[in-house]
Amino acid sequence: MKSEHNAAVAKFIKEHLETSAYSMGEIALLVGSQSIEVVEGFVRGDLRIPLDKALPLAQALGCDKRKLFVLVLTSWFGTEFVKTIEDVLVDGSASTAEQGWIDFLRGSFGNNVPELTPSLRRRLRLVASLPS
């Protein structure tokens, strides 16, 4: 039976599989499997992705490796455990306000935050200085 966490991973994979430069057979090889059925199981949500396969899979799909890894970790250990890890390892490095800005920017750019170029820096300063 598929869990909601496996379904979230499967949905994420499906979204990126369509734009991947690789076929499912090639992706299977890149994650260290000889069988396309393994990747098909990931796509259906029938199989949980082993933690050591999450990053090679993200690279093969050309997707955000952090997002896929968090989804995979959640499928194994649940939301509360992953939240605890994030609180201990990630959130301690930024204040609540800073984390709010980081989350907003990630959401605004679809988790694909571009490099902060001088032009983008000027635009952000302009936006931040505008009255609401």
Q: Key terms for this structure?
A:
mainly alpha, 68% helix, 434 Repressor (Amino-terminal Domain), globular, 132 residues
Summarize the structure.
This protein is mainly α and 132 residues long. It has helices at residues 4-17, 24-30, 36-44, 51-61, 65-77, 79-89, 96-108, 118-129.
List the helices and strands and how they pair.
Layout: H1 4-17, H2 24-30, H3 36-44, H4 51-61, H5 65-77, H6 79-89, H7 96-108, H8 118-129
Question: Could you explain the architecture of this structure?
Answer:
With 132 residues, the protein is mainly alpha-helical. It has two domains: 1-78, Orthogonal Bundle (434 Repressor (Amino-terminal Domain)), CATH 1.10.260.40; 94-132, no CATH class. The protein has helices spanning 4-17, 24-30, 36-44, 51-61, 65-77, 79-89, 96-108, 118-129. α1 (4-17) packs antiparallel against α5 (65-77). The radius of gyration is 18 Å and the shape is globular. The termini are far apart.
The counted number of beta strands is 0
Given the C-alpha coordinates, what overall shape results?
globular
Secondary-structure content class: mainly alpha
The residue ranges in which pLDDT falls below 50 over 5 or more consecutive positions are none
Major β-sheet profile? none
- CATH C-level of the largest domain: Mainly Alpha
Classified in CATH, the superfamily of the largest domain is lambda repressor-like DNA-binding domains
Mean pLDDT: 86
Task: Write down the domain tally.
Answer: 2
Q: Helical segment tally?
A: 8
CATH topology term of the largest domain: 434 Repressor (Amino-terminal Domain)
The CATH level-2 architecture of the largest domain is identified as: Orthogonal Bundle
Give the radius of gyration: 18 Å
| Series of secondary-structure elements, N-terminal to C-terminal | HHHHHHHH
Alpha-carbon distance between the termini?
49 Å
- Helical fraction equals 55-70%
β content, as a range? under 5%
